Amino acid sequence: MPLVRVDESLITQVELDRALQRSGKPEGAAKQVLENMVDQHLLASQAQREHLDQDPMVKDALEAARRQVLAQALLERRGPVQPTEAEIAAYYDRQTVLFSARRVFGFQSISIAEPKPGLESRLKQDLQSGLGLSELVSGLERVGYKLRTAEGTAGPEQFPAYLYEDLKQVEPGQIVVAGNDQTLTVLNILSAKPRPLSLSEAKPIITRYLVELGREESAKQLVKSLRQSIRVDYLTREQALAMGSVITLPPQ
């Protein structure tokens, strides 16, 4: 059923229902979603009147959006595999720090962007020798590191996964230093209070995580299969020019 006519196009009830579903908003937000759709139609109509749909960059963006929508639709059509009860229980047992032995921590943290090799071991040595956190921050800033500091209370799920192993055993008064190639974290534990989750409480969380993990793995396997069955040729500059390519390739 049509709801609104905007220029030469119609917005139907079905389109509104789908837009509302995609937005994740409650039904009470339908009017606002509809108004947003009207605004979008108005802008799109004006863009067409100005022939922006013929602009090469706009055409490229539209085609990229089309490919993205089709790819996402294919993955969603395949559907995620729901984890079994045994898989959920096994994950619960493996991740004790998140569930059965979960604690809520009072903390101070320093996140260091793009740490240089060896920085983690050097910071551990400095802290063991009695260097305070304020001196550590000053020293890092002095040599040009970008830092982000924070403090508060959080469960383990709110920290980076590379801290999980240390959080299993850490006690108040201890400082954890861990990270990866992108970020290094210095975590000062001020308090630790038990807040375990039972298997029944954790089940919805684990299910969502395993479904998303399965979706990602399914996508990887599908792409791998398609790459094996569909020819993909990476063209040299000469081949592209011979095909009359309009793309200007950088010199090799």
TrEMBL record:
Superkingdom, natural source: Bacteria
Any Pfam family: Rotamase_2
Keyword list, A-Z: Isomerase
Every PpiC domain range: 83-204
Single GO term (MF): peptidyl-prolyl cis-trans isomerase activity
SUPFAM superfamilies the record matches: Triger factor/SurA peptide-binding domain-like (SSF109998)
Protein name, per record: EpsD family peptidyl-prolyl cis-trans isomerase
Organism expressing this protein natively: Chitinivorax tropicus
